[in-house]
Design goal:
33% of the residues lie in helices and 12% in strands. By secondary structure, the protein is of the alpha+beta class. It has a domain at 109-210: minor pseudopilin epsh fold (3-Layer(bab) Sandwich). A 4-stranded mixed beta sheet has the order 2-1-3-4, sandwiched between helices.
Length: 221
């Protein structure tokens, strides 16, 4: 399992999910991602998903279940849609924060080789990935996945993810976006790829997550 993206099991935190501290200061990603943006998405949005999830699962079969299991068991279950979206968004955001690092980075040799083979190289991937993220209507995510032996770009809405579709170990890159409040949904955040985190074992290749707002600059994957 990809431990860096694992949300603490509620059995380890007194029976509830917690908002895990960021692995860096809120201003550590500036100027690519401003302190204000991190504070908003982490301190408000991410916290809200965690708090709501705790409310929704209290007294249910999901109360002490690992969050990835909640996501997988509630995916595509209409009666559990609210639990799914809050669990999915909490997991996606936790995964996202731990795939970023001050100063950014560039792909490792294996990922670079696969990007060249499947998506025309890093620059072409970055352009296509950003376009896919911006084109995603409303709140959602764009992902780079390793599917059937090939790198592909896919998008999901709200709390959906490759993990929810049985592709946990295939998710390579994700970008999240939200339409700004009191503004048209077409004026969504600009998303750009950032850093890489390695995944141990087998032939699994690096994973990354990225997010930036319209007033920030892309630093590269």
């Amino acid at each position: 399992m990809y431990q860096a993206a694992a949300v603490p099991n509620p059995t380890e935190t007194g029976g509830h999910f917690t908002l895990t501290p960021l692995p860096y200061a809120e201003d550590a990603l500036a100027p690519v991602i401003s302190r204000e943006t991190v504070a908003l998405h982490y301190g408000k949005h991410h916290r809200a998903y965690v708090d709501k999830l705790n409310q929704l699962v209290e007294g249910t079969q999901f109360a002490r279940m690992p969050i990835d299991e909640i996501v997988k068991r509630t995916a595509a279950v209409a009666a559990r849609a609210e639990i799914f979206n809050n669990a999915g968004q909490a997991w996606n955001h936790h995964f996202y924060w731990r795939s970023l690092a001050p100063g950014g980075g560039r792909p490792g040799e294996e990922l670079r080789r696969r990007l060249d083979r499947d998506l025309g190289g890093y620059d072409a991937f970055a352009e296509a990935f950003t376009k896919a993220a911006v084109a995603q209507f409303g709140s959602g995510w764009a992902w780079l996945v390793f599917d059937d032996g090939e790198l592909k770009i896919m998008t999901t809405a709200n709390g959906d993810s490759p993990m929810a579709r049985g592709m946990l170990y295939s998710a390579l890159t994700a970008a999240g976006m939200k339409p700004p409040r009191k503004m048209p949904t077409t004026d969504v955040s600009v998303i750009c790829p950032s850093t890489i985190m390695k995944m141990a074992g087998g032939t699994r290749i690096p994973i990354a997550v990225a997010e930036a707002t319209r007033d920030t600059a892309c630093s590269g994957l």
